[in-house]
């Protein structure tokens, strides 16, 4: 698999990464054995970037990955971890904590759950409004000096925050939602990252399955957080599925599945953008691999964007309360 470097100072990684959040129940019940098999299949195929968060399943996701990695050479991996989101025993979101002492506590527990000696990329999941980003990044820089972390990453922050963070320590990458139906970063954030030599790890490239060609409303579990997502509700979902139909028609004409066309479009936007694929099962992973070999011409990209124009999606990408927490949207 082709490899790329994350920004000027980040690690080299495969062209696509594996997002593991969905293996810990966010999209309804998950199969532990199939999740581990999917991780192994990804690594066997040449993927080396695994993305997780210490709050996915309240530690479940890190322990799952730790189990999967027991037979894997740690030095071949790029492990990316988000931290700071606070949850109660029922799973409700309570806010964020990015104080320096919290950062150092979080990483201690993460290392234990994953069963590793260091984290390749460590990043606050969101901007803590009560803590200057400089203090948070300084704490991660201390962890780098101590050998517990290799690189600093950011997640869902805006241009001003990116610049403040980069002034403290080199930033490997910004993890942020980017897809055919979520193109907000193109206006200011992506140009700023390119100016500063910061890579992009793009999550939500299939908009949580919405533009995968596989999602069906009737198949959504009661515990699936998409039931509360504006894009999956009421008239919004009807409008959005019409966009999916248009994308599917273009994809079929080009010999791709709908999901492959959506992933290939993100890949075509630049070698500094690495899509994070949230596959929970091997069959979906194999489909994603098929997108890596696709080479889209400028005409192909234009045709896909005509089918799904910028800002055509109906509904915000998160519910209102979560949108309010996104520094990247301010």
Automatic annotation (TrEMBL):
InterPro entries: Aldo-Keto_reductase (IPR050791), NAD(P)_OxRdtase_dom_sf (IPR036812), NADP_OxRdtase_dom (IPR023210). Pfam families: Aldo_ket_red. Gene3D superfamilies: NADP-dependent oxidoreductase domain. Transmembrane segments: none annotated. Keywords: Oxidoreductase. Residues 15-307 form the NADP-dependent oxidoreductase domain. This is Aryl-alcohol dehydrogenase-like predicted oxidoreductase. The lineage of its organism: Bacteria, Pseudomonadati, Pseudomonadota, Alphaproteobacteria, Hyphomicrobiales.
């Amino acid at each position: 698999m082709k490899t790329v470097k994350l920004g000027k100072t980040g690690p080299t990684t495969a062209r696509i990464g594996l997002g593991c959040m969905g293996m810990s129940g966010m999209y309804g019940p998950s199969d532990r054995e199939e999740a581990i098999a999917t991780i192994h299949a990804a690594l066997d195929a040449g993927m080396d970037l695994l993305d997780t968060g210490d709050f996915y399943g309240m530690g479940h996701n890190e322990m799952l990955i730790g189990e999967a990695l027991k037979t894997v050479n740690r030095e071949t991996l790029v492990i990316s971890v988000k931290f700071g989101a606070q949850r109660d025993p029922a799973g409700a979101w309570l806010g964020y904590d990015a104080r320096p002492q919290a950062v150092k506590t979080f990483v201690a527990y993460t290392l234990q759950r994953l069963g590793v000696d260091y984290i390749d990329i460590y990043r606050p999941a969101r901007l803590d409004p009560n803590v200057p980003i400089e203090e948070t990044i300084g704490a991660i820089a201390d962890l780098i000096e101590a050998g517990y972390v290799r690189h600093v990453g950011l997640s869902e922050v805006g241009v001003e925050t990116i610049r403040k963070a980069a002034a403290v320590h080199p930033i490997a990458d910004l993890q942020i939602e980017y897809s055919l139906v979520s193109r907000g970063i193109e206006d200011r954030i992506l140009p700023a990252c390119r100016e500063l030599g910061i890579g992009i790890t793009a999550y939500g490239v299939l908009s949580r399955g919405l533009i995968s060609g596989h999602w069906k409303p009737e198949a959504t579990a009661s515990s699936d957080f998409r039931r509360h997502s504006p894009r999956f509700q009421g008239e919004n979902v009807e409008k959005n599925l019409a966009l999916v139909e248009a994308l599917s028609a273009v994809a079929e004409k080009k010999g791709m599945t709908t999901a492959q066309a959506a992933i290939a479009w993100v890949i075509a936007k630049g070698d500094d953008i690495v899509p994070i694929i949230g596959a929970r099962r091997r069959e979906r992973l194999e489909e994603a691999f098929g997108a890596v070999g696709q080479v889209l011409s400028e005409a192909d990209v234009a045709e896909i964007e005509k089918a799904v124009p910028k800002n055509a999606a109906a509904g915000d990408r998160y519910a209102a309360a979560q949108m309010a927490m996104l520094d990247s949207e301010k």
